[in-house]
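Researcher: Predict the fold of Sugar ABC transporter substrate-binding protein.
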Amino acid sequence: MRASRTRRHVVIAAGAALAVTGLITGCTAGDTGTSSQPTNNTDNEASGDKVVIGFSGPAADHGWLGAINSAALAEAAKYDDIELKVAEGTNDANLQISQIETFINDKVDAIVLLPTDGAALTGAAIKAMEAGIPVVNVDREFSSPFAARVTVLGDNYGMGVSAGTYICEEFGGTDAVVAEIAGIDSLPLTQDRSRGFADALEDCGLEVNNRVAADFTVAGGEAAASQLLAAAPKIDALWNHDDDQGVGVLAALDAAGRSEMVMVGGAGSKNAMEAIKADDGVLKATIIYPSTQAADGIRLARLLVQNKALGDLVEVDVPNRIVLYAPVVTKDNVDQYLPTAFTS
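Model: Structure tokens for Sugar ABC transporter substrate-binding protein follow.
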């Protein structure tokens, strides 16, 4: 029998929808402030001075990254005062570094960057900041606080907490077998998701019994799931970090005739949400990882260059760090999230 229980301190620790950290004070290598005082402008949609923004991201080799790119382009197109220079998507860190150097040479007003590897792109981002070009870092963090003026992140640790919380509410107080299919293990975001998942499970006496890693792709998800199923003859609950690779995970489950488990997805794809709404398979929930991050980055870059702030805050500067919420989507609330879902 599944036990339902009220979550306590773990949920409190991860429940903030918007985490805002104050600006780094003092003189830094990344100081791109202007001489005039920013204004808390409640009419930020009004057209202002022209802003040239350089945008660079990884290759759109799965649905979430495709949605990231298309949302950024669509957001820029809403404003007649934005000129967007888009670099070709790449998974080659050296090529992306050269793209940032090109933006610097072109003297763009701001750069929005989703790095293929945050550590590898840190030096190039610092160079842009030192050239007086504010950098908005999206999704994968740099390894230095001086590499970005603003960082926009999904809540990776919070995703793990949300997934673990859901499973605890279903299986807490039992000896359920819990499995995990992670993304790319070398990425800090994957490590954060796994850490949050383990912390939430520990709070209700569960643990990860079987774990494999994939690569955020359909083929990778299918291969990893097949490996997992061969090693685990029984699974009660499965968290798959990413709905794109989840297409392959579900294919492997179907091929193996494994339907005994409750599966939780991650990211929030349209096909995952439609399966949750239909409620006729193992997938019962997914955890949102917003595909709006680069679009948010475009908006924030515009505000920075135009010396404006967020109209709904009393603070007169754009925040240094914004962490987006990681809610659980189930059949009870899926209609709320379907309109913003991406297609795998």
